[in-house]
Design brief:
This protein is of the alpha/beta class. It folds into two domains: about 5-55; about 60-315, 2-enoyl-CoA Hydratase, Chain A, domain 1 (Alpha-Beta Complex). It contains 14 helices and eight strands. The protein has helices at about 10-30, 35-50, 55-65, 70-80, 120-125, 135-150, 165-170, 175-185, 200-205, 225-235, 240-245, 250-255, 275-295, 300-315, and strands at about 80-85, 95-105, 105-115, 155-160, 190-200, 210-215, 220, 260-265. The protein starts with 8 loop residues before the first helix and ends with a helix.
Length: about 325
């Protein structure tokens, strides 16, 4: 059943009418195809009008849509011969970050991604994509393995942020994230990352310090969640809408600021409405970047990657 966001209510009403007419056609044999066609045209016009001028807060809602494709969906469609690798060899396994070996369009690759889960049980199991230190240490281990065996790395970012619990802090959350970023920057193999939903704070950048950072059209990427920002600046989480505008967290803002490299367009109405189309578009973008990066020598890749992120800091200081 399709889940509609608050600002999509006019569309929900029209699609409800379309469904009623279809049932009527099936039950009574009445031909309602003309009325259905008119309503569908109206739905498409509404979608175009609404999605052409989404506010940052509305984009936050689209990025968090419960039916938006998650890492596991991309993994199932894009990666064959998948062999998951678990554990950080220090403490344990963290299901908020999945990683392993597979083949992507003929290439052997290391693939890592945040997994939020798609229903109550899986969301709890994956901790809503919020990783603990062992998740980032697992990713670090996989980065090192990729470098050793000269395998390109693909990462899929979709997390509200690193898990902020006491147990995570006790086991060195900040250090694990910093080491993971360092491991990504050290790679001498092609490294491409794509933000498919939420890119939250250090929990996101830990696996996204890549040669190329791609981002879906309605994804978000920020140093803090709008709610977290609002609670700090205004002492009121209800100011999240205002915070989302100040944070410049949309793909369009980030491309302008030079913090990401390319935007991947989504179907009308968001990635959740045409999942296979979105997955294929992401696959094409990843393939294009890997082909380009494969032509560069390892030392050049690492130098360019490091310089890219250092330049971001210089721009900020300027």
């Amino acid at each position: 059943m399709q889940h509609f966001l608050d600002f999509e209510k006019p569309i929900a009403e029209l699609e409800g009418m379309i469904e009623m007419l279809r049932h009527r056609t099936a039950g009574d044999g009445v031909n309602t195809s003309e009325e259905i066609a008119k309503l569908q045209a109206k739905v498409e016009r509404l979608f175009r009008q609404i999605y052409a001028k989404l506010t940052p807060w509305q984009k936050v809602q689209v990025a968090r849509h419960p039916q938006r494709p998650h890492f596991s969906n991309y993994l199932a469609e894009l990666v064959t011969e998948w062999t998951p690798l678990a554990g950080d060899r220090l403490f344990g396994e963290d299901p908020a970050i999945l990683g392993g070996l597979g083949r992507f369009r003929g290439r052997s690759v290391v693939v890592i991604g945040h997994e939020k889960g798609s229903d109550t049980d899986s969301r709890v199991r994956h901790n809503f994509g919020m990783a603990r230190p062992e998740g980032y240490r697992k990713a670090q281990r996989l980065f090192q393995m990729a470098d050793h065996f000269q395998l390109p790395v693909l990462t899929f970012v979709d997390t509200p942020g690193a898990y902020p619990g006491v147990d995570a802090e006790e086991r060195g959350q900040a250090e694990a994230i910093a080491r993971c970023v360092e491991a990504g920057l050290r790679l001498r193999v092609p490294f491409v990352s794509v933000v498919i939903g939420e890119g939250g704070s250090g929990g996101a950048i830990a696996i996204a310090a890549a040669d190329t950072v791609l981002m879906l059209e309605h994804a978000i990427y920020s140093v803090i969640s709008p709610e977290g920002c609002a609670s700090i600046l205004w002492r009121d989480g209800e100011e999240a809408k205002q915070a989302s505008e100040a944070l410049k967290l949309t793909a369009q803002d980030l491309l302008t600021l030079g913090l990401i490299d390319r935007i991947i367009n989504e179907p009308l109405g968001g990635a959740h409405r045409q999942q296979r189309q979105v997955v294929n578009a992401v696959g094409n973008a990843l393939d294009k970047e890997l082909t380009r990066l494969a032509k560069l020598e390892g030392g050049v890749l690492r130098a360019h990657r490091r310089e890219k992120f250092l330049e971001m800091g210089k721009k900020g200081l300027g």
